Amino acid sequence: MKYAVLSACLSALVLQTSAAMAADYSSVSKQRLDNPEDANWLMYRRTYDGWGYSPLDQITPENVKSLRPVWSYSTGVREGHQAPPLVNDGKMFVSTPENQVLALDAASGDLLWRYVRELPDDLLQLHPTNRGVALFGDTVYLATVDAFLVALDAKTGAVLWEREVEDYLSGYYMTMSPLIAEGNVMVGVSGGEFGIRGFVAAFDAKTGEPTWKTYTIPGPGEPGNETWPGETWKTGGVPVWLTGNYDPQTKIAYWGTGNGGPWVGATRAGDNLHATSVIALDVTTGKLVAHHQYHWNDSWDWDEVSPPLLIDVKRDGKTIKGLVHAGRNGYLWLLDRAAETIRFVDAKPFVNQNVFTSIDPKTGRPTYDESKKPVVGKRIDFCPSLWGGKNWPPSAYNPKTRLLYIPANENLCSAISASPASYRPGELYMGATLSDLKVYPKSPDVDHIGELQAWDLDTGERKWTAKFPQQLWAPVLTTGGGLVFAGGTNDRFFRAFDATTGEILWQQRTNSGVTGVPTSFAVNGVQYIAVQSGWGVDAERGQAMLNASMGTTISVPQGGVLWVFALASE
Question: Which of 25, 457, 475, 527 is the most buried (most CB within 10 A)?
Fold first, then answer.
């Protein structure tokens, strides 16, 4: 009985706080998404260009040592907490694994409301996480792991509408933060290991009605279908599991795409468009207007799902409207974007890579060392590992330093043996012998694996590198105060770096490993840094594989906690 009374009291408190929130909630307009106020963080990477940059400059290299936790909130959920805390005029919205959404007072940590989705019992969660919500008008949008798009009232958490995007029983799921532009809410589907046919879909932001759907694998009669022999296009994978970046001037969004299915190219001939690519979609119609494939007939599980950052780069006295991508294949790509074209400019390795022997200087198409390409029945070794030179954690760009900050993994290799695969809806369709799948250091005497790298895009030179003993799963934040924030290590630290030199200036050990996307915001003139700590998913799996290959027994505790920091009061 006492628990029922306590639950009722808590519900009453949440209703009171959400009622107060309804009175002063700031509606999120198109204009605010185009030009967000410095104090707010209204979308996945704060701005459409994907920089992960906050102009706030109250916290600096000189005073960051005074940064202290000011409040925290335990989510009560296990697994990988990867979502950024979004903040709209003092109201914070953050998602967790199991498709829960928390609305909190950003300055005090008081809970305003909580949404908990009831997931089906027969759901197989290959990636049990969520990478964030989206805000528009008075609505919070959530893409779910059972492949629904849900619209919540931002003031109360009540469900306004929900729309099935695809059938989860066929292997489709979603983990991304939706992208909102021109009145559309856009999502991409995961499930590349289940024989899906990937796509990006758009829905009317007010009603949830479908507006368009664009497949990442061309069907019969569409350009590129010939790169999928027979009917392999029907089950070829090519997921889209990270939020695209967007150019409001051209109304084009740029999305990264994942692996073909099955995993190893020897089981599916052809270039396999538009796998491991960037695709450019008109957000009003869904038309695919351009693409660039980073590597063809992917055989190493090098998903290129991170969307390129939209950065103007200066080369040879000219300004390039750049698409910048630190690839899972270990190369840093510079492409030139126009209204309906993507042109290759440059690519160079940012970690050790032994698969590419050359890159065509005009097209950017790589040539392979065939001895490093997995085949059926034989184990093949290659570098970087299947986790890639950089996995899903986003890079960040600082317009003041003009440096790109990349969370990389160096000195790490893999081995895969391919095997025939049979497609059955909703079952794994990988074509790889998982018992023979290995991740290991390049050599026994390597002194580090994780690297936070800073690159000058105008010169194409690396400026500094911070090194860590093991893997780095670190989404990056950079600020106008001249700092870079990142976690991602198995020692549970969240750190601040000097954006110019890479020196570690501050660190805070948290409850778990930090794989959440950090954000910065301000309330009443005080700058805050916020991040979720909660180890799991691929970071945990990667650690297990390294333990097996290195003979270590490193274990990172799970459990999600939202941490919020500010400078100590004088």
Answer: 475
